[in-house]
Amino acid sequence: MASLESGTAVVVGAGTMGTDIAAIFLAGGWATHLVESDALRWDAAKARIARSVGQLSCAGQNRAPEFHRTLSELAWRPVDLVVECVPEQLALKQSVFAAIEGVAPEAIPLASNSSSFPISQIGAGLRTRSRMLGLHFFMPAHLVPAVEVVRGEATDAAVCEKCSQLMKALGKVPVNVKKDVPGFLANRLQHALAREAFALIDQGFASPEDVDAAVKYGFGFRFLAAGPVLQKDISGIDIHCAAAATMYPHLANDTGPARVLREKVESGKLGMKTLEGFYRWTPESAEKEKERYEKALLQALAILKQTG
């Protein structure tokens, strides 16, 4: 595999996640190849990669990825790591990994950026499952520090450890997920919060705006400085335990999406992509909000680098 200083990466899929993940490798000085069968997407992908690398303010700005239509076009011997970033469809991912296994030498780790499917399920039937793992980045991948390193049922622990070290060398914060469960670690925590948030909206306790304000300006504000476990050490575990005993019986335990979510989907109100979700958007206001969001993330990233 690659040294911790440099290497060669292959990213399969040039969508939003794929291009931002490619930017991470380029920013770290890696030679980077993107496999995208639709050549009409290449120009937009190149533009996003250049922008993302530029946001990281690094020496990698002068590097550019090589694009390929198929896996067979690659010279595989210099490759150190493959990251799959195709759409979140199980059958598609399984077919992509079957194709990769057929051409990539067995020493190369094969990683999926899947956000939900168990790695063991994606790799079912592969001959070299021991080299397959999850590397789950969070959107926008080049700005959010955390990367989940997910060990499947058959994954060699040494592969996960080496990939964790590579992620550190690229400036990311590896989060090791020792068991292959749906949603891994961060998405399970995120969805636990979301389930309660949308249940409160469903039940008329709060508006979407007030839910967002409670998280952003309340307890969520503290998460930049301390995660939920450390924060309880700071504030007092006994206080948290007593509050939990009072509140837990009343928390949402729904096994399906909230009514308000289902209704939005059924009516085609999917958020910025359709210009209406819980908020109304114009193309201009959506772009302005995305710029504000990324600026805030960059500022948060700077704080984390200063404070650890």
CA-CA gap between termini: 28 Å
The coarse overall form would be globular
CATH architecture annotation name of the largest domain: 3-Layer(aba) Sandwich
Number of strands: 8
Assign the structural class, choosing from mainly alpha, mainly beta, alpha/beta, alpha+beta, or little secondary structure.
Answer: alpha/beta
Q: Which homologous superfamily in CATH is the superfamily of the largest domain?
A: NAD(P)-binding Rossmann-like Domain
Specify Rg, calculated over alpha carbons: 21 Å
Contiguous low-pLDDT stretches (5 residues minimum) are none
Order of helices and strands: EHEHEEHEHEEHEHHHHHH
**What share of residues are in beta strands?**
5-15%
Tally of discrete structural domains? 2
Average residue pLDDT: 94
Helix coverage percent of residues? 40-55%
